[in-house]
Amino acid sequence: MSVVISGVSVLIPGADGAKALAAGPEPGAGPVEPAALVGKKGLRYKDRATQLGYCLTSAALADAGLLGEDAMAVGGDIGVVVSSNYGNLDTVVRALDTLREGTVTATSPMDLPNASSNVIASSAAIRYGLRGPNLMVCNGATSGLDAVNWAVTMITAGRVDRVLVVGVEPDNDVVRRLLGGRHAVDGGAAVVLEDAGAARARGATVRAVLGRYVRTAGVGAVLERLAASGAPAPARWQLPDATPAGVGADLLPGVERAALPEHSGRGSGALGVLQCATAVGLFDEGGWGPVFAVCGTDEDDASAGLVLLAPPAPEAV
Amino acid sequence: MLSRSIIGMGAVASTGRGVRPLFDNLCRGRTGRAELRGFDRTRFRAQHAYEVDDRPAEGRDVPARATALLIDAIGQAAADAGLGEDLSGVPILIGTGLRELRSLELWWREGTDLDDTGLHFGTALRERFNADVTHTFSNACSASLYALALGSDLLAEEGDHAPGTVVVAGVDVLTESMYGLLERVHPAPPDRVRPFDRDRTGVLMGDGAAAVVLSRDAGGRRAHARLRSVAVNCDAFHVTAPSPEGIAKAMRTAYDMAGVKPKDIDLVMLHGTGTLLNDEAEATAMADALGDAANGPLMTAIKSMTGHTSGASGLMGLVMGVTSLNEGRVPPTVGLEQPVEEAAEFRFVTGDAASASMNVAQLNAFGFGGINAVAIVEAAP
Q1: Would you identify the CATH topology of the domain A3-201?
Q2: Does Transferase show up as a keyword for this record (chain B) (predicted)?
């Protein structure tokens, strides 16, 4: 049984699709404007991460051929897994400031759902009618790849045939203070994962095939585990979020390395999904794999790695 | 048919530390309700919560209390299962509503230390247990049963990389923002948690953590119970209002996955938050899913004593429910006098703990955004 990617969306400053992301986001681009993408309706009272999540959800479902003319998902039992570490931090501190500077009656009841970190995942489900399992992953540096793997796990277990995976991080003052002045990517990516048989049955186009995932302490150990699992040698390596120490120069010698550029900011929980979208962008342009995606450096609690394979050549009719 | 052995358990809440002391206190009807311990009370209309009394000084809050409770519960469960102190390579799945957002609040307002590796629990679990396959899920109030579903899926995997043992945990402590916003939406400030009572005033938060060790086979150890199924879904209906249809669907799926009928259910550990919206919706769904068997199982809601332990609450219910199966005793729902109409025919345990011989328990947990999780456990043979 295998799991494939059948749809993708990307929204970060300077890249509005998988191919643009694979080519490298343009520096100096303006922020993503959710109202221009999905309309103003329903955006009020939603935090920026949730708004960005709406845009990514809509575009990925459309790309996978799963968005109906009524702008709702076709077939309701689609799961949702969202990865974000900074998603609702702005709501939490704003409500806290209001409380500390006044009393509880000064807070807005509209903030209640946004104070729960799963608001991005559940809001996307409500707006687009996604009734499958709904999961919010807030797992630090590896979160995006972990989210992809949990979607694969639920599909493999037979819980659901299709899962939308979103990785998104907003940028704001709280995030910048937490990151010691650096900014976050203020956008993200989404992929639609499907059981290969279910994708074939509806005639979906396979954009990438998912291979082995591992999570363990250290980038080197992740690469060793992937090699030991029988994964084919990579053609390209998507690197973790840059750190001063970087990753070891001795790792995977000769393999092309690629990373989210410094000007894009910290990918954090969005990074793993951005890496998957990059692989799809490469494969869409006729590039070949495998692509190794790795999140989390030796300074994080662990690293995760995922193998992405180019889709098989179409069978001769 | 799914069947996973539960070979280790741990728990800590305002009402006690350790599975057995906590269970005994709940059976005595002892609640952890007290005046707010860590917040400035003048900011709030509500004045009470169900907090673990572990702060170094009265009225002064400290960061990383959620992490400390989580480590306590996991340590208990790992010791109970004989896993030892080194959990490298063992998947640890944590369900939480609020992660370390209390540490974020203290960092923002009081300048305590935090960086972005301190919002999830992996960093601390690596330090304490050398754990490197850690996953923090922030799935509101159904988080720990969602984590249980994923843990059970992991054990179903095949191949050389498939784990034989998984730790599943849940944890939450009060955050000032959530405590405040929750009371903000109540017409009158909640005074105590009285699940399913007509005169209930709403929900109050509680601190707590629970953990279980799940294993593909018990390996010669006596299992506490067997996990038969965990169903998860999403109403896709409203961010704060639950849908009885979505909840009932999760219950029926859980029965189907477990291969049980409504009449087989002996005990239901209800979500029972005491909010104005949850209890009617849960009772309607429960009556729908059980059908003719609605007056069969004993039912109780331990949030009446632990408060709403948010993401921990589903697994807290499971650990207490498993202990009920093994002990033949069920803790009461304290403060429940006149059940709401939708729950009129249910066999609630009130007053004293009930004694009964039971084999199958149902555990409910529902969260903001309409995310539902329902588990079925069976007494070990």
Answers
A1: Peroxisomal Thiolase; Chain A, domain 1 (3.40.47)
A2: yes
